[in-house]
Design goal:
The complex is a heterotrimer.
Chain A (H helix, E strand, L loop, with lengths): L3 E12 L2 E12 L3 E5 L6 H8 L7 E6 L2 E2 L4 H7 E4 L11 H11 L4 H15 L14 H12 L6 E5 L7 H16 L3 E6 L2 H4 L4 E6 L2 E6 L1 H8 L4 H13 L3
Parallel strand pairs in A: 3-8, 3-9, 6-7, 7-8
Antiparallel strand pairs in A: 1-2, 1-4, 4-5, 9-10
Helix pairs in contact in A: 3-4, 5-6
Chain B lengths: L1 H16 L1 H23 L5 E7 L4 H12 L3 E7 L2 H10 L4 E5 L3 H8 L4 E5 L4 H25 L25 H28 L1 H7 L4 H31 L7 H25 L3 H19 L11 H7 L3 H13 L5 H25 L6
Parallel strand pairs in B: 1-2, 1-3
Antiparallel strand pairs in B: 3-4
Helix pairs in contact in B: 1-9, 2-7, 2-9, 7-9, 7-10, 7-11, 7-13, 9-10, 10-11, 10-13, 10-14, 13-14
Chain C lengths: L4 E12 L2 E12 L3 E5 L6 H8 L7 E6 L2 E2 L4 H7 E4 L11 H11 L8 H11 L12 H13 L5 E4 L8 H15 L4 E6 L10 E6 L2 E6 L1 H6 L5 E5 L3 H10 L3 E7 L2 E6 L8 H7 L6 E5 L3 H11 L2
Parallel strand pairs in C: 3-8, 3-9, 6-7, 7-8
Antiparallel strand pairs in C: 1-2, 1-4, 4-5, 9-10, 11-13, 11-14, 12-13
Classes of the chains: A alpha/beta, B alpha/beta, C alpha/beta.
């Protein structure tokens, strides 16, 4: 049995009368690629904020990387990586400056940062771009780099909030290969997305709709269970009857 | 025409649905007027002055009465000779001394001029200037009335301190034209430049460009609503000034409004011009404020007399639209002059508006890039 | 207007400074078809659409739309095009109804006059007609923007990434609505970064780095795939990909969700692949031949580019 790195029990988050997260229960294991799916407004972002220590739950237990999300938000932040919608890199800094800045924020020593930057650039075959401004790089490269930066301090868990979309098929695959490589090193990858085809790349997915979890399991198992040919079909089948109500 | 009306309707909806726009349009001008108004009027009430009347004739006594019954000044003491002046000022009980020279009334009637001076306590320069301005204004009023009966009254004035305000146009209501000049141009230029760049930023401009709307439609559609609202702002400023500070408008109200509308048009066309050279709202705001705020305050003559500045400033001030407006409305509101005295300024503003409108039409592209 | 070709581009090029946004674009779009432009962000889709909608002018080549030249006859053309830019171009502070009325007035028509055309689409959002557009969900914004683009009964509808940022349910509905519009004789050109949406178009053009890679029906594009394609599955994707890439007999290996799509340099090697993977310590391997999808073909075409 693999180690549980995220444990969520009866998580509820309310904003006034609005229930953004309604009794969520799930576990995520070490080295797993966990997809968190749902339409805009399904409650993904709210849950993600709680898991990454940015907001605290109304009720329920949430443990992330061994810390309680209610009381130890600061500790959680130090032990996770985060890559938000599009990129958290500065367009007017060079590749090297961006990584140095990021390492500094996480309190890494400058010697270690230097050594790791060289390793990273070699590994990504990025040496020629080291002193180029981020703004001028192609989308696919930016995305790969943003991910590498998010795991630069070797966190236990990395949260990817709507990471892809719009990149070409080759760049997209290269990006997923980076994710696979990180997972193979034992880093847990938690991805939120509303692009259902991204879900196919995950080890397990959890589908949210109107604040609740409606399905959870491996993509293959879920497709079999609901007799769908893709996660997209599955999602449309589950969410469509609800969407009409709004 | 129907297209244009539809466009204008849409603009009005934008404005009325956005509380912040309304606050900028009406709240800021009123606040500014009240702020400036109170800073100035609250201080000069019942100030103590002393009078040294070496003439003691009908005219000087009359003028002394006028000063003391104005409500701004209270006569603390009647002095007997020049030696007393330093004593009363030094005591700090008196802010200024008004001196009527010997044979004041007689000189005035026979020679058309007479000697009169104001000696103010310069330890508080702003206050001293204000006191001098007030006294001068009352004397001005007095001599104007006298002129209606007789002719040729000239007074001699010697303020010890010259810090603020243009010496020729000193008046307690100077601030109203000043606030109008800078508030109107900044609101007009800022609002129109923001509303156009917002469409660029939100991507709605793309849809408008692809539609059969012409550049002229879009420009006119943006100008008309703000013209109407600025007119309301103008009326509100005048109304508040009248209500709270009993601002007199000595000249024609129609002419004042006419020239103000021209100035508003100038501000709006400037705003549109700014929007054609800015990519987003941030740039538009930055350009509007940087190019208008300081020049308007410094170079228009609103606070500092441009005549006392280096030559370069004086030359630069001719490029500041508010300078012309300020001169024109001061002439109308305070001096009570007619179109004959403000036609040059009017022409200058017409010319500037025309230039900005032409530049905007030239710069406003019906395609992207 | 009897011309069957609605858009004709001949060797169209456009550059911004040093950047060549479009190079040598040749394409024809026929009356009444749904024509898809498929490619990643930055491939030049938006630039091409802005040329078609007369928002930009081409630097080289000729481009006629509805028989009109985009440079000289843009005013006439603008009356006949319905354009939905990537960001939906709605006024967020105006209600649903006000947005629609505004666009109707701008085009010199009324909502009533053309209601039949948009009825299918607008009926979805009509219950919220007094809601500000900014407070609508992505899917509803998209339907409102489409209604606004159609309100003047355009001959050509240009939709720039209408499904980006919209949830899967709304995407499916949206394509159904587009097919409904075909009945009204409206030609639609639509761009999307999603390969799977290509299948819903009559014809598609694949675009990458400002150049068209292929223009054909989706089926013909897939049939253009030259090799034999296999889907390989194992328990652990990453080690599987690494092992496949290390094998000289493997030509390409691309992850596709939980499987890897593989082509071989050596005919018949797929039979010996499980043995090789077993030696690498990879178990529970399944291999099956599959027919390529549009994304497989796109990858093949892209890799052929230098």
């Amino acid at each position: 049995m693999r180690e549980v790195v995220i444990r969520v029990e009866n998580l509820v988050k309310r904003f006034g009368n609005f229930v953004a997260n309604d009794h969520l229960n799930f576990e995520v294991y070490e080295g797993e690629i966990f997809g968190f799916l749902g339409a805009n407004g399904a409650g993904k972002t709210t849950a993600l904020r709680i898991l990454s220590g940015l907001s605290s739950p109304t009720s329920g237990n949430v443990m992330v990387a061994g810390f309680d999300a209610k009381r130890q938000g600061e500790k959680i932040k130090r032990n996770i990586g985060y890559m938000c919608q599009r990129f958290s890199l500065y367009n007017d800094l060079t590749v090297r400056e961006n990584i140095t800045l990021y390492g500094g924020i996480y309190g890494m020593s400058s010697g270690l940062i230097k050594q790791r930057i060289d390793e990273l650039l070699r590994q990504l075959e990025f040496e020629e771009y080291a002193d180029r401004l981020i703004g001028g790089l192609p989308l696919g490269l930016k995305q790969k780099l943003a991910f590498s930066v998010a795991i630069f301090h070797e966190p236990k868990i990395v949260f990817l909030d709507e990471p892809t979309g719009g990149v070409d098929p080759i760049a997209r695959r290269q990006f997923w290969e980076e994710i696979y490589a990180a997972a193979a090193r034992g880093i847990t990858v938690f991805v939120t997305t509303h692009y259902m085809d991204e879900a196919e790349y995950c080890d397990r997915v959890c589908i949210m709709d109107q604040g609740r979890i409606v399905a959870i399991g491996t993509p293959t198992a879920l497709k079999q269970k609901y007799g769908a040919s893709s996660i997209e079909d599955l999602f449309v089948g589950i969410a469509r009857p609800n969407a009409q109500k709004e | 025409m129907r297209r244009l009306l539809g466009f204008i309707t849409k603009e009005f909806i934008h404005i009325f649905r956005d509380l912040r726009t309304l606050i900028v349009l009406f709240g800021i001008p009123v606040t500014q007027i009240l702020l400036f108004g109170y800073v100035i009027t609250m201080e000069i009430n019942d100030s103590s002055i002393a009078i040294l009347d070496l003439s003691k004739d009908e005219v000087s006594l009359n003028l002394s009465d006028r000063l003391c019954s104005s409500g701004f000044f209270r006569q603390k003491e009647n002095l007997n000779g020049y030696d007393d002046i330093e004593r009363v000022l030094r005591s700090g009980k008196v802010k200024a001394v008004v001196v009527f020279g010997e044979g004041f009334g007689c000189d005035l009637i026979t020679r058309g001029k007479a000697s009169m001076s104001i000696i103010a306590d310069g330890t508080e320069p702003n206050y001293a200037t204000l006191v001098c301005n007030y006294i001068t204004a009352i004397v001005n009023d007095f001599s104007r009335e006298q002129n209606e009966v007789e002719t040729g009254t000239v007074f001699l004035l010697q303020p010890e301190v010259r810090m603020f305000f243009n010496p020729e146009l000193k008046d307690q209501f100077m601030f109203v034209p000043g606030v109008m000049a800078y508030v109107l141009i900044i609101i007009c230029a800022l609002m129109t430049s923001i509303t156009i760049t917002r469409e660029k930023e939100f991507g709605t401009m793309e849809a408008l460009l692809v539609s059969p709307l012409r550049a002229g439609h879009i420009i006119v559609g943006k100008v008309v609503p703000y013209m109407v609202l600025s007119f309301v702002t103008l009326v509100v400023i005048l109304w508040v000034s009248w209500l709270v500070f009993e601002l007199p408008i000595r000249g024609s109200l129609g002419l004042l409004i006419g020239i103000s509308m021209l100035y508003i048009l100038l501000g709006l066309s400037l705003g549109i011009f700014i929007s054609t050279i800015s990519k987003n709202m941030q740039q538009a705001i930055f350009i509007s404020l940087m190019s208008l705020l300081l020049p308007t305050i410094i170079l228009s003559g609103f606070i500092f007399p441009v005549e006392n500045m280096p030559k370069a400033y004086d030359v630069a001030s001719y490029l500041v639209p508010s300078k012309y407006y300020l001169i024109a409305i001061k002439n109308i509101m305070i001096k009570g002059l007619g179109i004959g005295y403000v036609w040059k300024e009017t022409l200058a503003m017409c010319f500037m508006s025309a230039i900005f409108i032409l530049l905007s039409i030239k710069n406003f592209k019906e395609r992207l890039q | 207007m009897a011309d069957k070709v609605v858009i004709r581009a001949e060797d169209v090029g456009k550059h911004f400074g040093k950047l060549h946004a479009l190079r040598g674009i040749n394409l024809e779009v026929n009356r009444g078809e749904i024509f898809g432009l498929i490619g990643p962000d930055g491939a030049g889709k938006t630039t091409l659409f802005r040329l078609i909608t007369t928002l930009l002018t081409p630097d080289s080549g000729s481009l006629t739309v509805l028989g009109l030249d985009v440079v000289t006859q843009y005013r006439e053309l603008r009356r006949q095009i319905g354009y939905m830019p990537g960001r939906f171009s709605l006024y967020h502070d105006l209600t649903v109804e006000e947005n629609l009325n505004f666009y109707a007035t701008v085009f010199g028509t009324t909502v009533k006059e053309n209601y039949t055309l948009i009825a299918d689409i607008y009926s979805h959002i009509e219950p919220f007609r007094r809601r500000p557009a900014g407070k609508l969900s992505g899917g509803m914004k998209q339907k409102l923007a489409l209604s606004c683009a159609l309100i003047h009964r355009p001959a050509l509808l240009v939709l720039d990434e209408p499904t980006t940022g919209v949830d899967a349910v709304s995407r499916v509905e949206f394509w159904e609505l587009l097919r409904g519009l075909r009945e009204h004789g409206i030609t639609t050109v639509v761009s999307t970064p999603y390969m799977d949406e290509a299948m819903r178009c009559d014809r598609v053009a694949l675009i990458q780095s400002g150049q068209l890679l292929s223009i054909d029906t989706p089926t013909a594009i897939m049939e253009g795939f030259t090799g034999k394609l296999y889907s390989v599955r194992a328990e652990e994707n990453y080690s599987l990909i690494m092992a496949l890439r290390a094998n000289p007999h493997v030509h390409t290996a691309h992850p596709f969700g939980s499987s890897v799509h593989v082509t071989f340099n050596t005919e018949g090697y797929h039979a010996t692949l499980p043995q090789y993977l077993h030696e690498k310590g990879i178990e529970n391997v399944t291999i099956e031949p599959i027919s390529p999808g549009i994304e497989d073909r796109f990858l093949e075409l892209m890799e052929r580019e230098p």
